[in-house]
Specification:
With 267 residues, the protein is α+β, with helices and mostly antiparallel strands. It has two domains: 2-105; 115-259, Reverse transcriptase/Diguanylate cyclase domain (Alpha-Beta Plaits), CATH 3.30.70. Helix content is 62%, strand content 15%. It has eight helices and seven strands, in the order ααααβααββαβββαβ. It has helices at residues 2-28, 33-57, 63-105, 115-127, 143-150, 152-169, 193-206, 236-253; strands at 133-141, 175-180, 183-189, 211-213, 216-218, 221-229, 258-259. Strands 2-3-1-6-7 form a five-stranded mixed sheet, with helices on both faces. A hairpin with a 2-residue loop joins β4 and β5 (216-218). α1 packs parallel to α3 (63-105). It is elongated, with a radius of gyration of 31 Å.
Length: 267
Amino acid sequence: MIFAICLVLLGLSGLLAAIIPTYQMCVLHEQHKGWQLLMSMIAMFIFGYIGFIWLLLHRPTATLEMIVAAVFAGGGIFVWLVTKMSRHTLAKLLQTLHDKDYQANHDLLTGLPNRNRFYTQLDMMLANTSNTFSCIMMDLNEFKIINDTLGHEAGDEVLKEVGKRIAYVCPPQSLSARLGGDEFAVILPNTNSQLASETALKIKQALLQDIQFEQHRLAVGVSIGIAEFPRNGNDRRSLMKSADIAMYHAKNHHTPFTIFGSPVTAK
């Protein structure tokens, strides 16, 4: 009898141990009702194992009881192994999907959202025509000189530091992105162009401090253009074109930033 009870307890231990990975799978994949059903079945099995132990305590143990006890032991261990391996496989799969989604929507060098993510967010903002927002386009000045004289490794360090500083000074609700090369952009929800100019000045000031690369101190300038929705464009193409025009005006006239359509732009 004692040996049979030990076998059942071994299986019961497996069922109890299976509760944790099963619960974790419910959390990882909460939309799938199968894991919740599995959790309920494990709970019923546990009551069944406890009931069988009670029977073993109140009746003689024969060959049949020993066989059933062995089956219970194997069943509990099997459930634990299956749930543990399933949890590992599911977690690995979800991590792979997360990594692919991150790579599809983020710039791998700076960690900022990339052009694809920027377009998606911009289209979402444009779909809500009741709210004003601003789009900032930026281009680093003389960045090609850094690449040509110190190499692409220095250029990459500059881009990473610039991306970090831009993200730091922008408001929490904004989206900062690297569109490619030395071109960056920011979406500022619920912000008109005058308020966006405050963020533009913060970005300009954040980049005034030299960037250290090995024994070199690199100075990086930036040209910034600002466009406001819907005043300067009511779709992605027109809004970004307005911000681009303002940005190139700032570059050509050596101004900290330019708001599209402002008197300064008309010069």
